[in-house]
Design brief:
The structure holds 2 protein chains of 2 kinds. Chain A is built from 13 helices and no strands. Chain A is mainly α. Chain A folds into 2 domains: 4-53; 70-269, MetI-like (MetI-like fold, Orthogonal Bundle). The radius of gyration of chain A is 24 Å and the shape is globular. Chain B is mostly helical. Chain B is built from 14 helices and no strands. In chain B, helix 11 runs antiparallel to helix 14 and helix 13 (250-259) runs antiparallel to helix 14 (263-288). Chain B starts with 15 loop residues before the first helix and ends with a helix. The chains are: A mainly alpha, B mainly alpha. The interface between A and B is large, with 95 and 96 residues.
Chain lengths: 283, 290
C-alpha cells in the first residue's frame, strides 16, 4: 500500500479544517433543540452537553397534553396538517390549470398574467402581510382557517405557476397536435396527456406548497388567534408569553413539529433539488 | 360608442362562444381560478393599502419616529452587509462541496438540515443558547474563562448581528446548493488544461470559475436581498425588535405598527421601501421572464 504524500495529507487537512466548522455550525442549534427535548428541566438549564439523566418524559407530557401550554396540542397539530394539505391541493389545482392554459392553450393575455404572477412572487411576504390582514378582516375571514389557506395559496401560486409553465414549455407541441388529430377534447388532453407527463414537477410543487404552509409563522400568527384555531408554530411562539416558559417542553414540541417537514424534504429531495433549485434561479 | 339595447339600429354582436375556439374557452376557464385569487388577495389588498397610505401626514409621522429611521438603517445593514457575507460564504462553500469525497457528500446531506426544518423551533433554540444566565454559550464561556459572558441580546449591535447570523444559518444551504449547480455546469476540461499549465488556485478561480458564475452570483445576491426584506422570523423570534425597539427591520416594524392598530403607518413604511424594491424586482423579472 502506498503511503499518502505530504501534499495529499495537507489537502485533506485543509478540507477537514473547513468541514468541521461547517458541521458544528449546522448542527449546534439542532442538537441544542434535541438536547432540551431529552433533558429534565434541571439538566437543560445547567448547560451540559449531555444530560445526566436522559429521558423521554418531555415527549410523554406533550403527547398526554399535561401542561397549560400544551392543552390543545393535538388539535393544533391537526390544524397545521389540514391547512398544509389544503394549501397543497388548492395550489396544485390552481397552478396546474393556469400553467396548462398559458403554456399549452396559449390563452390570450397569458403572458401578462405570468408577469403579474412573477411580480407577486417578488413582493416580500412580510410586506403583503400588512394589507392582507386588513383584507381578510374585510372579508370576515379572520380566525377562520380559510384566511390562512387562501393567503398561503396566494403566496405559493406564482412560483408554482412559473415552475410548471417552464416544465410545460419543454413538452413537445406535437403531443397535443397528435391528440387533437385523434379527436381528443381539451379536457382529455389535460387529463390523459398533460398530467401524467408533468408528474415529477407536480410532486415537487405539491411538496413546496405543503412545506411552505406547514412552516409559515407570520401569516398564521396574524390571521388566527383563537387557541383551538391556531397552528403549531403559533402555539410555539405563544410559549414565550410567560416569563418562566417551560423551554424543555417548547423544544420538545418544536422537535416534533420539525420532524415531518424534514422527513418530507429528505424523501423528496431528488425532486426538490431538480425541480426547484433549477427553477429558482435561471442564469 | 354605446350600444343601446332598446335601439332598433343596434347590430347584435356575435355570441362570445362563436368567436373563440373551444380550446380558448377552456384556456380562460382554467386561468380563472388564479385570476380570482390574484384579484381578491393581491390587487385588492395592495390597492387598499396604498389608498390608506396616501396621506402625507403618515410620512411626516414616520419621519418623526426614531424607530423608523433605526429600522431603515438596520434593514440596510442586514441587506448590504449580511447578504454579501452570506453569498461570499456560499460561493466559498460551493467550491468545498464540489470536491469529490465520500465524507463531503455526507456532510452536504447534513448541511441542508437548516433549510429543511422550520425556522421557529431552531430560532428559539438559538435564542435560549444566548440566554445570559442559562444559555449554553455563556455556560461555555464561564467554564473556559471563569468570567460571565455578555448579555447577548441586550445590546442592539450584538443582537442585530445575531439576527443576521440566524438568517445566514437558515438560508446559507439553499444558496450554496444553487451555486454548486452553477459550478458543476462548468466544463471540467478547462480546469484540467489550467492544471497542465500550472495555474494556481486563485488563478483558476479568477479566470475560469468566476467568469462563468458571475451572472448567477449577482442574480442570487439580488434575489436574496428582495426575499430578505420579507424575513420577519429571524429578527422577530430572536430579539422581538428589542432591546428598546432598536433592532427592528422594515418587515418587523410594519407588523409592529399593525399590532398597534396604525395600519396607515405600516403601509407608509412599506411604501418608503418601494424605491429600493421596485428596481430590484424589475431587474429580476427581466432576468426570469426571458
Amino acid at each position: 500500500m502506498k503511503l499518502p504524500t505530504l501534499r495529499e495529507v495537507a489537502t485533506e487537512a485543509r478540507l477537514l479544517l473547513i468541514g468541521i466548522p461547517v458541521f458544528l455550525w449546522t448542527m449546534i442549534p439542532i442538537y441544542h433543540m434535541f438536547l432540551f427535548a431529552i433533558s429534565p428541566k434541571e439538566d437543560a438549564f445547567s448547560g451540559k452537553l449531555w444530560p445526566d439523566h436522559p429521558t423521554l418524559h418531555n415527549f410523554e407530557i406533550v403527547f398526554k397534553q399535561q401542561h397549560y401550554f400544551l392543552r390543545d396540542f393535538y388539535i393544533q397539530f391537526w390544524n397545521s396538517l389540514v391547512i398544509a394539505a389544503s394549501v397543497g391541493v388548492l395550489t396544485l389545482f390552481i397552478a396546474t390549470a393556469a400553467a396548462f392554459s398559458i403554456s399549452r392553450l396559449k390563452v390570450p393575455g397569458g403572458r401578462v398574467v405570468m408577469n403579474l404572477a412573477l411580480f407577486t412572487y417578488f413582493i416580500p411576504a412580510a410586506f403583503l402581510a400588512v394589507p392582507m390582514y386588513r383584507t381578510m378582516g374585510n372579508y370576515g375571514l379572520l380566525n377562520n382557517h380559510w384566511s390562512l389557506i387562501l393567503a398561503m395559496v396566494t403566496i405559493a401560486s406564482p412560483y408554482a405557476i412559473w415552475v410548471l409553465k417552464q416544465a410545460s414549455d419543454k413538452l413537445p407541441v406535437e403531443l397535443d397536435e397528435a391528440a387533437v388529430m385523434d379527436g381528443a377534447t381539451t379536457l382529455q388532453i389535460f387529463r390523459l396527456v398533460y398530467l401524467p407527463l408533468m408528474m415529477p414537477s407536480l410532486v415537487a410543487i405539491g411538496t413546496y406548497a405543503v412545506l411552505l404552509a406547514w412552516n409559515e409563522y407570520l401569516y398564521a400568527f396574524l390571521l388566527l388567534s383563537n387557541d383551538r384555531e391556531i397552528t403549531l408554530p403559533v402555539a410555539l411562539g405563544n410559549f414565550l408569553a410567560a416569563d418562566d416558559s417551560p423551554w424543555e417542553l417548547l423544544m420538545t414540541t418544536g422537535f416534533i413539529y420539525a420532524l415531518p417537514p424534514a422527513a418530507i424534504y429528505y424523501a423528496f429531495r431528488r425532486y426538490m433539488v431538480g425541480g426547484l433549485t433549477a427553477g429558482a434561479v435561471k442564469s | 360608442m354605446a350600444i343601446t339595447l332598446s335601439g332598433d339600429q343596434a347590430i347584435p354582436a356575435p355570441p362570445l362562444s362563436s368567436r373563440l375556439t373551444p380550446a380558448q374557452v377552456w384556456g380562460i376557464v382554467l386561468l380563472a381560478p388564479y385570476l380570482l385569487v390574484f384579484l381578491a388577495f393581491v390587487v385588492y389588498p395592495v390597492g387598499y393599502g396604498l389608498w390608506l397610505a396616501r396621506a402625507p401626514s403618515n410620512y411626516v409621522a414616520l419621519y418623526n419616529d426614531p424607530i423608523f429611521a433605526r429600522a431603515a438603517v438596520n434593514t440596510l445593514i442586514f441587506l448590504v452587509i449580511g447578504i454579501n457575507i452570506k453569498m461570499l460564504i456560499a460561493l466559498f462553500l460551493s467550491g468545498f462541496f464540489a470536491v469529490q469525497r465520500p465524507w463531503i457528500k455526507w456532510l452536504s446531506v447534513i448541511f441542508i438540515l437548516p433549510w429543511a426544518v422550520p425556522s421557529i423551533p431552531t430560532i428559539l433554540s438559538v435564542r435560549f443558547m444566548l440566554n445570559p444566565e442559562w444559555g449554553m454559550v455563556n455556560h461555555f464561556i464561564f467554564s473556559l474563562t471563569g468570567d460571565d459572558g455578555p448579555n447577548w441580546l441586550n445590546d442592539p449591535t450584538v443582537a442585530l448581528t445575531m439576527a443576521i447570523a440566524v438568517h445566514i444559518w437558515k438560508s446559507l444551504p439553499f444558496w450554496t446548493l444553487i451555486l454548486i449547480t452553477g459550478r458543476l455546469a462548468i466544463s471540467h476540461d478547462l480546469f484540467e488544461a489550467a492544471e497542465v499549465d500550472g495555474a494556481s488556485w486563485w488563478q483558476k478561480f479568477r479566470y475560469i470559475t468566476w467568469p462563468s458564475m458571475q451572472t448567477l452570483y449577482v442574480t442570487c445576491t439580488l434575489l436574496s436581498m428582495i426575499w430578505t426584506l420579507g424575513d420577519f422570523n429571524s429578527v422577530y423570534l430572536l430579539t422581538g425588535g428589542g432591546p428598546a425597539d432598536l433592532t427592528h427591520v422594515l418587515s418587523t416594524l410594519g407588523i409592529r405598527y399593525l399590532r398597534l392598530d396604525q395600519l396607515s403607518l405600516a403601509m407608509a413604511s412599506i411604501v418608503c421601501a418601494m424605491p429600493f424594491v421596485l428596481p430590484l424586482v424589475y431587474f429580476m423579472m427581466k432576468r426570469l421572464s426571458r
